[in-house]
Amino acid sequence: MFQSNNSVMAMDSVTTPAIAASSRSQSITEKAWCNAIWFQMTWCCAVLGRETLLPLTAAMLVLHLTLVRDTTRELLQLTTLAAIGIVIDAGLSLAGVFRFPGGVLVPLWLCGLWLAFATAPGRSLSFLGRRSALAVLAGAVAIPLNYWAGQRLGAVEFGYPVPVTLAIMSLVWAVMLPVLFRLTALIGTASGSEELT
Question: What pLDDT is recorded for position 117?
């Protein structure tokens, strides 16, 4: 009987840290700082590495999905928000605002980047979703500046002069970024989960 209790205690001491580590790893993905670091790493893989680092971008996305608490909800959020971003980018490409190598409307690395960005409205950028004016301002300024950085790094060419391209993107994203925050909140509400912070 004494040996049986020891083996149960030994088994608990082996499984409990594993369960605790699993719980910690799942909750860490919900932290704003962790999401910000993860997104910047994924941004670098996608924008700097493009097709060359596409497998690493995909691996970063798989890692995220492996660690989140609710994979179903996360997939819904990622596919919904990313689809909107990809459709907008495709429309801007068709309108001649963007030109990607090979004449593609939206390259795969940018699709991966949109999937990664779709994790941010409920985490590292959630503070913007609670303040409509800040969301509009971020859409008008931050998103166009990210594309300009991509253009400077050779990931995309602008079909119009830089000021015109940035103005077009400012108008589009001043409207659409708040929409993405609203959709994130609706998906969270529909799945019965609280807003992530």
Answer: 96
